[in-house]
Model the fold of this input.
Amino acid sequence: MRRETLAALFLAAAAGIVIAQASLTQGPVVGGVTEAGAVVWIRTSASASVSVAFSITPDLAGAQVVVGVTDAAKDSTALIPLTGLSPSTTYYYNVLVEGAPVFSADFPRFRTFPAPGSDTEVSFAFGSCQSDGNHPIFSSIAAKDPLFFLQNGDFGYPDAMDPSTKLERQRQNFRAQYDPAHPLAGVLLRTAPLVYVWDDHDYGGNNSDKNQPGKEYSLQAYRDYVPGYPLAQDAIGVWHSFRAGNAEFFALDCRSQRDPELTSWNDRLNPDRSMLNGTDLPATQSQWDWLLGALLGSTARWKFIVQSVVWNPTFSSGGGDSWAGYLIEQQALID
Done:
């Protein structure tokens, strides 16, 4: 879409010519950021034509536009990819629903990542275990202007409102976290891209594992609601990696593939117990083999393993829900 066409849309909306049949309910949330691209997630009140206008100028002068549609089959959500971006650059953007712009000023923004190998400083924030996004800490984090916010599991506690894993339960949880009235979505995620991997409560139930009934719904909601990086096995779990300058991050799925927690403390040395491949997938699909190969093949100076459970091998967590119950695999990873 040319710049002149975008300007016409803004003028028409201001004059009352464009009447939106749907409205933005959650978002925008940016994720999947690289040195050359990003993904914008949005949800509307009903299926609608949507677009994202983005520019390197705060007033969106010379904006480019990418068009999409929110899908009713995906809870009226859309993932809009932005491509052809420049490294280490701040981009401002606006969302239009049925041609009507959502923001009029102080547009949301994000920074693209430094190019691989660059020595540009990378500063990020991380956290976990939040009941909802309505907490002042998110405004404090935003004030530090991190390159991204890494949410490391228990992104809400949907199992508290429904002990079963249902698609609507998972969707409700994401809608609560993305509430624009709360400082997580309304402040922090307005400027910091989201990186996310699940843990037990947002994947299934407390201490959940590979046997969680309905885990396919958790994965479906993740794919529809998370503007993330390509998953290594997108039909199986949520493990993935991404690069920011001289740092590479390996985000693990410590739930969907793991063997159940210990029933006997003596079983912690069982070589068949696995945190990352309890489903015994072949090497071409196994998270364990993917992790080892990715670590050994990485050219990044700094390598961060992002995982959501307790690492301390002396901690039992009331039965071995931590890595203490998977000591053989933990030691193999260290080695």
Q: What stands out?
A: The radius of gyration is 21 Å. The helical segments are 3-14, 137-143, 167-177, 183-186, 200-203, 215-225, 287-297, 327-334. The longest strand covers residues 24-31.
